[in-house]
Amino acid sequence: MSFPGATRPSEESLWSSRPACREMESKVSEGGLNVTLTIRLLMHGKEVGSIIGKKGETVKKMREESGARINISEGNCPERIVTITGPTDAIFKAFAMIAYKFEEDITNSMSNSTATSKPPVTLRLVVPASQCGSLIGKGGSKIKEIRESTGAQVQVAGDMLPNSTERAVTISGTPDAIIQCVKQICVVMLESPPKGATIPYRPKPASTPVIFAGGQAYTIQGQYAIPHPDLTKLHQLAMQQTPFTPLGQTTPAFPGLDASPPASTHELTIPNDLIGCIIGRQGTKINEIRQMSGAQIKIANATEGSSERQITITGTPANISLAQYLINARLTSEVTGMGAL
Fold first, then answer.
1. How far apart are the first and last CA of the chain?
2. Which residue of 160, 183, 291, 336 has the smallest Cβ count within 10 Å?
3. What is the pLDDT of residues 80-104, one digit of tens each?
4. Distance between CA 37 and CA 193 in Å, rounded?
5. Are 294 and 315 in contact (CB under 8 A)?
6. How many Å apart are CA 53 and CA 104, to the nearest integer?
7. What are the CB-based long-range contacts (under 8 Å, 24+) for 219-224?
8. What are the strands of the beta sheet with 210-213, ordered from one edge?
């Protein structure tokens, strides 16, 4: 530990009952007292709802009692970023409150369930990849030490989060184990600042996966397919205006509709690491999107030094809108782990 003159802080904290933890806390608090540290957490919508509470009462209480700044990213995203900023002792208090709140949620959910074993509390930290090496340690020595001394499970993701230079660090265990684990991670982060520029992870907005059946559009919500009238209209319009004339048919399929409405072009850029989910195995997904939307879709070849690929969509406004929607749905299903849809 590189913090000089470590002495025990004057203020006793609620969770420093074990001597080893007191010593740990004194070192972190003393070393980090004048250091403002920022810790980012990745949470699902349900977890965020629990932290915010009714009319924002829970997060307000957490801010007031911990003294930490707690910000929650905006947006209709399946994942949200919760940023906790403040001196180390304020951060630990905020983490303690979050961990105990999650444990309370687990206990409440179990009262209506037949499960006998209580699942652990799980938190996901977002850490710059340049600091993960110090967290893992030589041959995994540091992470092993943290696991053994705190009793928490700690896992560092092998891959960086999409379009960022950050990795997810998952911590699970009892609230006390999680608090001690976060303290040790803070020590590592204070001792080994990030190297170079960090590109923060920003969750993508949600666009619900969509399926078409029998001329109707449905959005997938949980296990159910919900009819979506607006998309159905868009889908039917696109089908009516498809640029490919059905075999043996020379007149427009729908009398009164112009056989060739004016075509326009729209361009999108997609990160290289996500292009595969748009194309699909042997081009199955992109062909599906072409057929459903009736648009012509061209994907440019990868250019050296570029992390993005260009997609050109040509067709009527309805064709283009539908193609864009379907591409976004594929991206979202990939990012949220629902790639099978």
1. 49
2. 291
3. 999 999 998 899 999 999 999 999 9
4. 11
5. yes
6. 13
7. 220/338, 220/341
8. 210-213, 216-221, 224-227
